[in-house]
Batch of 2 targets.
Target 1
Amino acid sequence: MMKNFLPTAAVLAAGSLLWGGLSSEPASAKNRKIAPVITENVDFVAQQVQLMVDTMDTFKNIPSPRTLNEKGQLAFTTLDDWTSGFFPGTLWYLYELTGDSKWLKPAVHYTEGMERIKYYRGNHDIGFMIFCSFGNGLRLTEKEPYKEVIVTAARTLSERYRPGAGVIQSWPQWRGWDCPVIIDNMMNLELLFEATRMSGDSSFWKIATSHADQTMKHHYRPDMSCYHVVDYDSKTGEVRSRVTAQGYADSSAWARGQAWGLYGYTLCYRYTHDPKYLKQAEDIAKFIFTNKNLPEDLIPYWDYDVPNIEREPRDASAAAVTASALYELSTYVGRKQGKMYKKLADRIVETLGSPAYRAELGENGYFVLMHSTGNKPGPSEVDVPLVYADYYFLEALKRKRDLENK
Ligand code: GLY
């Protein structure tokens, strides 16, 4: 018989909001074991992001920094964009990692300014948007009203659940699709798991596990790479097509997609303790780290299968997401395997914090990392800074700190 992995009272009570809730104690209050790579990078990020905050505060409305424009200037997007939660999320991580209360005001300001997004129905991205902002805010301040925002957002996301296919529909019915689901959607499940814990409503949890199970079945190839887009018949659940939108080819392994999958299945294991999710995450890690096209510095090219790969741009955002996921994964496996995952994550963090990937102070539109690729086939955002690369880099630093200072 299938083991029931619905939340038990013990699972609901255990742990805390977001992995890495291991400790929300500010860095300054910790002992002296904090690795120089953490303190040096956090100090730099704090200085760089302060410059961005100073710029942002000159606007009356709430802009959302995303990347650079063609002139090399800071480019903003609207709060309806999938990336809008990353800037507030970055401010929360700085508040946590520096222990400096000066970050609280902007973190609250840019988080609360996006409250209306709890009703966002344009696509599935509400998980990224609300959880990076309000989720981190709740974890660090225990502001009760943030719970309502998170649960409402989970209800909004649940409207995209298609019971016939057992998945959350990612995008509208463009390009002749009926029910397109992209691998990125795994990241939205965190919002649903937490909403069940906060509200006691297990429907969010059931949707999350159904989506994870269907994605495991239909997105993954025998080599454990994944497709970017799977289009389902929303009524029968039959797969209509498997294609790409941001990758090199339908059959290729788009780098950030592999990272979303790794992170997504790791978080599914965090909540459910279902070993099939752990195995999935480990198998994805194996695909990434045994790939012949992964460069020595562990920062992938934007797609693992693009021809003439050495001439192609990297995607530092994929590496940052991978490092953050690996720190968490390292805590769920045996000692030897855990050490290996942590070592890989450490190497990625070292590389991202080196001059090869980290910008100079005051440069790069005040973003931290260079060399990310948003959508090469677009083409858009090729070899640029991206707000989410910075967010996951900082999250990786926080997870490393918590692991090493337990
Ligand atoms: N979720 C959109 C992306 O990864 O580009």
Target 2
Amino acid sequence: MATKATLTALAKLTGMREGVLARTARADFADHPDRFKTFSVTLDDLLFDYSKQRIDAPVLAALVELAKACEVEAKREAMFAGEKINITEKRAVLHTALRNFSGEPVRVDGQDVMPEVISTREKMLSFAADVREGRVRGALGQPMTDVINIGIGGSDLGPAMATRALSPFAPPKLRSHFVSNVDGADIGDTLRGLDPSRTLFIVSSKTFTTVETMTNAATARAWITQGVGEAAVHDHFAAVSTQLDKVAQFGIQPTRVFGFWDWVGGRYSIWSSIGLPLAIAIGPDRFNEFLHGGYEIDQHFREAPIERNIPILMGLLSVWNRNVLGHATHGVIPYDQRLGRFPAYLQQLQMESNGKHVQLDGSPANTATGPVVWGEPGTNGQHAFFQLIHQGTEIIPLDLLVAATPTDADAHHHDLLVANCLAQGQALMHGRTPEEAEAITHKQGATEAEARRLAPHKSFSGSRPTSTFLYRRLDPRMLGRLIALYEHKVFTEGAVWDIDSFDQWGVELGKELALSLAPVVADKAAGTAALDASTAGLVAHLRGLRGAEAGG
Ligand code: G6Q
């Protein structure tokens, strides 16, 4: 339950709201020429600029007080120490152990997990190298040209996002695919045109019971059996799971099964064997660089004072935007086409972790918790939904991400990309007053009356908050850094809101009901009397449509 100190700190912040909003961001910059320097942090080749957020020095100080009142630092150390901070599942939260290069032990129930982490990683990376270098061959002796990961949620989004982000580091002759949806179109479209004798499947599932993954795995198995023969399953499948007995039943050879542990949450599992498709794509050395990027952020998170601690600041700014300024959504706009799946990845990381309605003790949350997270790459978004961000009635804080130099892309294009990223932050902060709009329109040839009429439409309030992440280059290490920053941001928010950021009961109810509805959908004779009227009505209508199709 939130302590008195936390509530006092939040109340103090709420009291600062009107003062901050009474000023414009433009005035903030004009009055404080050192604002950029004050409200930005550099961590070698990564800059976090939050000077365009609606804060001032007293607000930042009050946010730091809030972090202290919520004991963010003590809670952080409890996580790194392997305490069972996922209290509803009674689990430690140790994705950080997967990228721990300190040489120090990490204990769960008194047992150092590092030897097993290291040996599992070595086994996984050696298999990845064998696939890349053509030593893993299909039943007909062909090297693999296509690797298909079958998984969903945490067993899909991380490797899918990262493999796309780091595609310049992958060999062109080895293609990666990701199948997640139970919609047969997903696997059907993926398999079309592929050669089963050169295709390797990785079945990724922590529990090895998830219906989507098991259904897709069965379809893949049938495809291999049909194409290369039943005995080929042995050569064309690998698996990643914590449930080794269930994997064995599927018929996957034990040397191709890569484990992980219940203290790795699905949405935090990219660092584990779940990263196998990424390791195959970019190779073991680069996968290690990716892990090192995460480790560097862990060190920063543990060592930097709150005022200079990027993930803690990200979390505190989110609390300020959500709880004090009342902004219900948060946009992530990477100016990097290859980070196209990064917003979806962060959507799961943030919304599944912090979309919670009760505090740790089960009492109702006393503030709003996780915002809606969404986004698309720039510059595309600018030609679509940015209209609302500039002139709509909702204020949407944004994270803008951009690399100084491109990876395997044209430098001139990249200059334009960066210019657009900076221009959006500038426009959202600075805005354009009605007077300015009127003068510009008049100068462009409109009559004074016409310019005045158009001024409200062509003016921008400005003072719309953004943070900018500017880094040298999107390489494996930088991607590891970016992901870890957001993981610890989520941790910080959860520590303030006093919620369990590591369970996900919200996804369970739908799964349960889908299982009980599946036979009703499949069998037109199954009774619907026990269903609510809407669901029963939908089932009846569905049967009608299918009947008409069959009849017609
Ligand atoms: C992540 C969630 C969820 C999970 C999927 C897949 O934190 O728990 O997205 O990753 O439901 O679960 P399996 O890996 O068990 O198939």
